[in-house]
Design a protein that fits this description.
278 residues, mainly beta, ten-stranded antiparallel sheet, seven-stranded antiparallel sheet, 2 helices
């Protein structure tokens, strides 16, 4: 009995330690105060130019706004965290607000994204529309149609889905529709060029593998950067401005790179993170 008690206590202590360490390891990419750790690239504008104050911080939120635009005019924008990552869990809490900017595309209503494994923003040309990346697409319900969130789109990239090369631009997840201005939390588990999982409410709603450079759906890029067939093992993280206002309350990341050589520890850490995802 005494031995069993010691063993049980040890297991409880170990589980608590793993969970506690998982919670301590988060990096707040967005500090709630300013955008000093982020760099901006908006199509038709120079790198680091925050045209019309598109990206701003107000009331502790990162806001994507278009009140300074006369016309959206395909000025797609992205705000990039300052450094790249390879293996991580990214968590964003977002909500769509207001009305779409004048001149925004019909498909861009209540549409944004967290771009994973992005090219270095300094290598984007002035008129490039999207970074070469894997887009974890964020959609809000329009009150009428089914609109899954946490989908995937592939600007200048390709993925494998169900063990086959997937060449269509976008693939829907199995998430429910989130309408109105409610806050939604989405997790994206990225493990180099092996697997990416999209997770909503502790459920994997989409999973795919082998992200790589290739395909189309990106324009005005430097061909030296788009080397088709290159595995995407790491890259920058960015958030989109696609013409509909959106706010981000949380943008944080747990760096899993130190654990990738120990699969047992890696899986324990991931389990601990996802158990505390809400």
């Amino acid at each position: 009995m005494k031995l069993k008690h010691i063993t049980l206590s040890f297991l409880i202590s170990a589980c608590f330690s793993i969970t506690a360490n998982a919670q301590k390891g988060w990096i707040n990419l967005f500090n709630g105060k300013d955008l000093k750790d982020w760099n901006i690239k908006i199509a038709k504008h120079n790198y680091k130019e925050n045209y019309a104050n598109t990206f701003r911080v107000e009331e502790g939120l990162m806001k994507v706004s278009y009140d300074g635009y006369q016309e959206f005019d395909q000025q797609y924008g992205h705000i990039f965290y300052k450094k790249p990552f390879s293996a991580y869990l990214l968590r964003v809490t977002y909500r769509f607000v207001g009305n779409q900017a004048k001149g925004g595309e019909g498909w861009a209503i209540r549409n944004s994204g967290a771009m994973l494994h992005c090219q270095n923003p300094a290598t984007m040309l002035k008129d490039q529309d999207f970074p070469i990346s894997i887009e974890a697409q964020i959609l809000g319900g329009d009150g009428e149609h089914v609109r899954h969130t946490s989908n995937v789109c592939t600007p200048g990239t390709l993925i494998n889905y169900q063990d086959k090369l997937f060449t269509t631009h976008c693939l829907d997840s199995k998430s429910k529709t989130y309408a109105g201005d409610q806050w939604v939390t989405a997790d994206f588990l990225v493990l180099g060029d092996s697997v990416i999982k999209h997770i909503i409410d502790n459920e994997v709603v989409l999973e795919y593998t082998k992200p790589q450079i290739g395909g189309g759906n990106v324009t005005n890029f430097d061909p030296k950067v788009k080397v088709d067939g290159t595995p995407l093992k790491a890259g920058y993280i960015s958030l989109q401005s696609e013409s509909h206002p959106i706010e981000f309350k949380t943008v944080k990341l747990f760096d899993l790179a130190p654990y990738t050589k120990n699969k047992q520890k890696l899986n324990q850490i991931i389990d601990g993170l996802l158990k505390n995802s809400k």
